[in-house]
Amino acid sequence: MTKEFDDAMNRMAQNVEKRIVKACNKLYGSIKKDDSFENYLDGLTKAELDNIRRNIGLKGVSQFSKKKLILVLAEELPVQVEQLLLMCGNGELKLIKQLVKNNGRLTIAEEHEYEIDILRKKGLCFSGTFEDGSTEVFIPIELLDPILQVLDSLAFNKQIKTINEILQVVNGIIFYYGILTIDELYDYVVKILGKEIDYNVFVKIIENDDVYESEFVFTGLYVHHLNMNIPEEILMEHYSRGDLPYYPLTLKQALEAGKSEYEEINRHDLRLMAFLDSHYELSKIEALDEIKILKDMIRNLCPPGELLEYFQQFFEIPTQDELQMILDMIIGIYNNTRQWVLKGHTSTEIRGNHPLVPQEQPEAIKVGRNDTCPCGSGKKYKKCCGR
């Protein structure tokens, strides 16, 4: 059994190493300086070229050979760069702007490899090792001016702003509700933003979740939170609670919850954080990390007993009284955490039959990255417990 396990682990390690080598060859493989646009496109696979032509909506060429498709794309890409740039995340756009500012060429930096790979697969830039040994990422001359014109366009920048707003609202909605079908999500986004959005454009934005800075996953049928472990089960729970309306979000709440690394911290969370600090000497950051883990477990349908078991795995509890104290605090967190299975409500709200109306200032403390930290330090959240 041990030999079989070791063999399986070795095969896994070898496969990972092969993928890393393959990825490096794509980014750092030999390439000629000032070569033709067609030759740079020839460095992409047929599947990658097909993906580019789908992204720009090129029809009637799906049966073309690779060579013939390259000729078509070399002609079409310079006039279709706006469509491709709209499907870039903020990191990719930032790199594109740096490239344009530097006449389309930069030395490859390790921290940009992810963005380079995405831009390369879109045909917007290429990379490799030249004859002199230098490694560069560059924009072909045929695309440099068209890209510059798009980046300077007010209409383009307005569209990017709209995309980012939609994504932030989607992140916020999914933080509260956990999972929705694509049609349900579209209806809520339109309702919360208070304006019409082209449905096809919306779906294209959601489909591009692996590039945009999103906190969700799109399966093709529904959209769920990145940290959701049992999406189908929670979706069925939504349907079984047909008489329970979703927690009514305001635009302000959705935008706040849509911020990166957002968590809703309330007084019950702060009580356990203070306990972890005083009894186990955890830093504010470490205590907050534990709270986030507990709240993710709650949202994934773990009952208080399992939360206590998790706690006991990492913290020694010397007395029965202290065990009961910790359990009471965990139950407080459990009852006041917004749960996906309850459509964004807390157990306390459901049991108390609270009026389901939008709350501009809900009882829970909303912690944004630039807000004052709720721990009382007086510092911004991102400089204190949110680091």
TrEMBL record:
Matching entries from InterPro entries are given as: SEC_C_motif
Q: Which domain of life is it from?
A: Bacteria
> Which PANTHER family does the entry mention?
ADENYLATE CYCLASE-ASSOCIATED CAP C-TERMINAL DOMAIN-CONTAINING PROTEIN (PTHR33747:SF1), UPF0225 PROTEIN SCO1677 (PTHR33747)
Write the protein's name: SEC-C motif-containing protein
